[in-house]
Amino acid sequence: MRRRRPGNRALRTDRLLAELAGTGVSATVVCPGRVATEWSGGQNQNGSDVMSARDVATATALAVERGDTVCVPGLAEAEALERLLETESALVSEGNRSVLADRYQPGF
């Protein structure tokens, strides 16, 4: 099963927020990991890394109330998400160039 990447979604949400600025509409991306639901035949019902749907809903409601852009309900260290967002932002801004980076130049 392919793992979803929160940061990638976070950047898209930031772009959406920029477009929504001044409209009174907000957006929050929720990246809960595995959730105990009936989806996929209930495959995610058991396991030590599975969160209850109620807990995901609680975290999501609080994140929306706070105006958080990204909600990762199981992430204990909020600073880890901030570091990821900063790194991805740098990758997007610094990686968007019209010339090849030195390391991709022939003979480098």
List the helices and strands and how they pair.
Elements: H1 6-20, E1 29-30, E2 35-36, H2 39-42, E3 51-52, H3 53-66, E4 70-71, H4 78-95
Write structural notes for this entry.
β2, α2 and β3 form a beta-alpha-beta unit. The N and C termini lie far apart (36 Å). The chain has 4 helices and 4 strands. 47% of the residues lie in helices and 7% in strands. The longest helix is centred in the last third of the chain and has 18 residues, at 78-95. It is extended and about 55 Å long. The protein has a two-stranded parallel sheet with strand order 1-4. The chain has a two-stranded parallel ribbon with strand order 2-3. It has one domain. With 108 residues, the protein is mostly helical. InterPro entries: NAD(P)-bd_dom_sf (IPR036291).
Number of strands: 4
Element pattern in H and E:
HEEHEHEH
Hey, roughly how much beta strand do the residues contain?
Answer: 5-15%
Spans of 5+ residues with little confidence (pLDDT < 50)?
Answer: 1-7
Average pLDDT level = 81
Count of helical stretches: 4
Span from first to last CA? 36 Å
Rg measurement, Å: 18 Å
What would the principal axes of the Cα set say about the shape?
extended
Structural class: mainly alpha
How would you characterize the largest beta sheet?
2 strands, parallel
InterPro entries: NAD(P)-bd_dom_sf
Summarize this structure as a short list of keywords or feature phrases.
single chain, 108 residues, 7% strand, disordered N terminus, NAD(P)-bd_dom_sf
